Fold this sequence. Notes:
The protein starts with a strand and ends in a 7-residue tail after the last strand. The relative contact order is 0.23. The chain has one domain: YaeB-like fold (2-Layer Sandwich). A hairpin with a 2-residue loop joins strand 4 and strand 5. By secondary structure, the protein is an alpha+beta fold. The protein contains three helices and five strands. A five-stranded mixed beta sheet has the order 1-5-4-3-2. The model has no long low-confidence stretch (mean pLDDT about 90).
Amino acid sequence: MKHRYRAVERFWTCFYRLSPQQKESVRRAWKIFKEDPFDPRLRTHKIQRLSARYGRTIYAVEVEGDLRSLFYLDGETVVSLVVGTHDLYKE
């Protein structure tokens, strides 16, 4: 299935705050992500607590080390919410 992609403003705000090396890691992961957000290399997994809080399934993609990106599916659209460290899970 081909997806459409959209990032909310908060995603971009967080992205621009990353270090240059982290931004490059996000760009590399994005190349895989846009082909298939569930590609095994991204180790996509559900975040149960956030899913319960928001009433929809929230997924995390492992970019590198402690760097994650959160997203959800809205029909055929993948909506990227935020990018950052594990602290994202506390929000």
